[in-house]
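Example (one chain per record):
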Amino acid sequence: MLYPDNCQERLGFNEVRQMVHQHCLSTMGQALVAKMQVMTKYDQINKFLRQTNEFKSILENQEPLQISAFFDIKILADKIRVEGTYLMEDELFQIYSSLQTVFSVLRFFDERKEIYPNLEALFEHLPIEKNILQKIERVLDAKGKMKPNASAELQEITSSIAKGEQEVRKRMDSIYKMALGKNWVADGSLTIRDGRMCIPILAENKRKLKGFIHDESASGQTVYLEPEEVFTLNNKLRDLEFDKRREIIKILIALTSELRPYTPLLLSYHGFLTKLDFVRAKALFAIDIQANMPILLKEAKTKLINAKHPLLLLSFAAEKKTVVPLNIHINENLRVVLVSGPNAGGKSVCMKTVGLLQMMLQTGLLVPVDEASEMGIFDQIFADIGDDQSIESDLSTYSAHLTKMRYFVAHATPKTLVLIDEFGTGTDPQFGGPMAEAVLEVLNNKKVRGVITTHYSNLKLFAGDTDGLENASMLFDNSKMKPLYILDIGKPGSSYAFEIAQNIGLQKEVLELAKQKTGTNQNSIDSLLVDLEKEKRQIHETKINLANQQNKVKNLVSENEKLKLFLEENKKVLIKEAKLEAQTIIRDANKLVENTIAEIKEKQADKVVTKELRQNLQKSLVKNEVKEEKKPVVKFDDTEIAVGDWVQLINTETSGQVLEINRGNLVLALGDLRSVVKRNRVQKISNKQAKKVAQSNSFSGRISEAIMNFRPELDLRGMRGENALQELENYMDKAMMLSFPSIKLIHGKGDGILRKLLREHLKKYKEVTRLEDEHADRGGDGITYVYFN
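Predicted structure:
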């Protein structure tokens, strides 16, 4: 239940409704948008949210679900019900087009069973009755026009008309040429008058040719005459046209009668199309506002993470600006958040964001929050926003506020969300403050939930001393005198009245006089709040800097782990290659020795020959000996190391370029990897020396070789699920280690089970940014592209 009646308007929900309305393809979907109401049943809300979320997934994954246009076939179904009525050709074609859309959608979901269970519930037990299409196709062509052979009689009439028109044309050409030869014809050619073909004849010659005059020119010098012979033929043609029209109506009546038994099914199809259009519009709007589905709770509480006001988000996006996200929680212990702070600091936007998102959620719309957000269900939403003074009702601003407060106190429950803007204003602060405090105390005793904005100090003090109430403030940069639009729960905020006035340039004597009139205690409280704001801001900035440092450390550790893993794998490869090479050398040496011994025996130990064979053996062994590769002599540079210089690790042949210098540590680029080393573990070398070392360094070469040998395409067709996942994991490790931007997985279509399994597994990788199907002409949803951040 919403109170007051203009609650939706004040929170901006009417604008949201209008944006959803614009995404509808049909008047039926628009009618459902107009009927959207706040719901309170968990199952109903959950169903609508999940349907929208599934359709959003279809749109984002660019699934081939074609919904271009459809019509309101309920009106046509109602017309069919009446005996004796018939549908026109265009009406039958509307039914045909709409049913094609229905069957296309049903086929789409049938190919993806159990992937979109909530959307499948929209057409549960809905049959595909293709007889309807076949009956219409028998009568209408692809453009929705009556086929000439829709019946034997129509075909015969159509053939007679074609022959008659040919005869008329032939006779008319003959008469026209005769009249032209006798100079009876005026300037111009054959023309149409009153639907009949006529010859333009000079007025003085009109009695020389028998026929019927249909018209004459403005000057009266030319008459338009239909020859007598042709007149008779045209009359026969007109009779045939009447016969054709009667036959068409007869066919339409017969077809409509055939469709009459299908009226209940047509209405079911209509209901399905209406719901589909409605869900599609909500999903498109969700994409516009970057909305997600939060965790839905049955309790009356909420925890918003990175929430954004949808209307503000769209407005800022048009201006290429970003919205500062809101983080707030309301539960059984922290029931009412009292937000204070400077004017134009974002207090009202904070309160309206909470109210609007709650209203959207309970109407089945996805909301622009983080997926980890939690949102419950409230039975009532009460709002006191803006000035509702009324001349007709004789209500002042304050009277209007009190009227709402009376209703709030009388009807609020623990499942009521109360939203009040500028609590207590509209009357003398000396009385308005205590009155607001009393109302707040009664509402708190009723354990209501809500967000309230105020400038009153007595309310801030009351919230600080009362269980269930919590102060919050909108952060303000007092050095730049600009609001930060960040909600800080836990302390009240200053209104910065004097600071803002001073920044604007209000005269000094006015400010001093105002401070004297404010009183010492109030000035002390306000100064204390300003100091607390400064300290809180410093702590907030320190936390951000610390978090950034921690992220850097985490990234460096991760890179080091990758480097270590790569080196270990590389070490195994080198050892394996060395063993193989050693085995080859030994094998060749053994063959050479055996051959030499054999030849010595064959020559019967001749000294000269034996000496020559021994020399040849020595030469072969020297030739096959593994010589140590000459390394370039590196000259070190003793000058100070700077960013961009090349350095070499002491006692190693590994070199890299300096990316950052952080005290005694250096961040080095080693090929495609980064590493942190101590300053005393490296020596500076020249760029020329760095190139020589890099050429002799097998590490970067092996990375390049690995990249060259790696194919960004993996074929998993025919594999069992478990084997496919194992293969995918090994492949993903290599792809991410080699920093490939994307890979291609070939899994085939089939029943879609392997595709679903692989995609669910890929969602667990935080490095994966999005998944896309191949183009329909090149494999469609049988191939998945995986993109990395």
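Caption: The two ends are 45 Å apart (CA to CA).
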